[in-house]
TrEMBL record:
To B.subtilis soj. Coiled coil: none annotated. Residues 3-179 form the AAA domain. InterPro entries: AAA_dom, DNA_Partitioning_ATPase, P-loop_NTPase. This is CobQ/CobB/MinD/ParA family protein. It comes from the Bacteria.
Length: 264
């Protein structure tokens, strides 16, 4: 099971779109995908037609349990209308977690422990993070094999990226335990100077950690979200979808490399 967290403390950079796009492609290839919505706004949950106010159970229940059983996890997990895509939904109550139980023992590892219990049930887990640093982000970073950091190619992007890097630094327990991350330039518009210049600065600053292609700006993403469908199913021949396929090939190659490193 491969676990990727999609995170950036800046809002509206394409986190949820990245999760849904990769999920669609993976599912169509026959991979079993679990999506985890850790954002109290529940955009990913509503993307798959669920109203978080009307659900019997959400991710919140897993945090309440601290060490949730596989029965509880499976009870809360929802099927979607797309083959191979399951969803652990969010609820608005997740916004209260930090205040209500942020200091409880073991709170940072709830997701990691939960995923260990269901590791044979899925091939890929994609965690959609809220744009804030809190219990949810801490859990996502601790549970994942790699952090995908979508960065919108516009002028304010670098500030957000710097903030994200600070978070990685604060949270890394030791040098050996370094987070693996890949920066993904998103909403790239080759006709604008802002896109070109921002991409150049991101590459200068973060070098190898930056994926060497881009996700282009593509109106099909918004159309797909209006239809509540993964872009790869709604518009399989779109430029944006092709870019996410290329990204997936790149990420899979990185995973193979990581597994080899662990074996050696
Ligand atoms: N490559 C793209 N081209 C055009 N529109 C895009 C692209 N990626 C995302 N969008 C659109 O931009 C908006 C924000 O994207 P998204 O919701 O994925 O961002 P987010 O980082 O998850 O936001 P938040 O921080 O609020 O959770 C959405 O309307 C989405 O359809
Ligand atoms: Mg989002």
């Amino acid at each position: 099971m491969i676990v990727w967290a999609v995170a950036n403390q800046k809002g509206g950079v394409g986190k949820t779109t990245t999760v849904v796009s990769l999920a669609g492609i993976l599912a169509q290839k026959g991979q079993r995908v679990l999506l985890i919505d850790t954002d109290p706004h529940a955009s990913l949950t509503s993307y798959f037609d669920y109203d978080s106010d009307r659900l019997d159970g959400t991710l919140y229940e897993l945090f309440q349990a601290v060490k949730p059983s596989s029965e509880l996890i499976n009870k809360v997990t929802l099927k979607t209308r797309f083959d191979n895509i399951s969803l652990l939904p969010a609820s608005i109550t997740l916004a209260t977690l930090d205040r209500v139980m942020g200091n409880r023992e073991g709170m940072g590892l709830v997701l990691k422990r939960a995923l260990l219990r269901i590791q044979d049930s899925y091939d890929y887990v994609l965690i959609d993070c809220p744009p804030v640093l809190g219990v949810m982000m801490v859990n996502a970073l601790a549970a994942c094999d790699r952090i995908l950091v979508p960065v919108q190619t516009e002028f304010l992007a670098l500030k957000g990226l710097e903030r994200m890097m600070k978070t990685f630094e604060i949270m890394q327990r030791s040098k050996r335990d370094k987070f693996r991350f890949t920066v993904i330039p998103t909403m790239f518009d080759k006709r604008t100077r802002a896109s070109l210049l921002t991409l150049k600065s991101i590459k200068e600053q973060y070098g190898e950690a930056v994926w060497n292609a881009v996700i282009p700006i593509d109106t099909k993403f918004r159309d797909a979200s209006l239809e509540h469908m993964p872009p790869s199913i709604f518009a399989p021949a779109s430029r944006g979808c092709y870019a996410y396929q290329t990204l997936l090939t790149h990420l899979d190659a990185l995973e193979r490399k990581r597994v080899q490193e662990v074996v050696v």
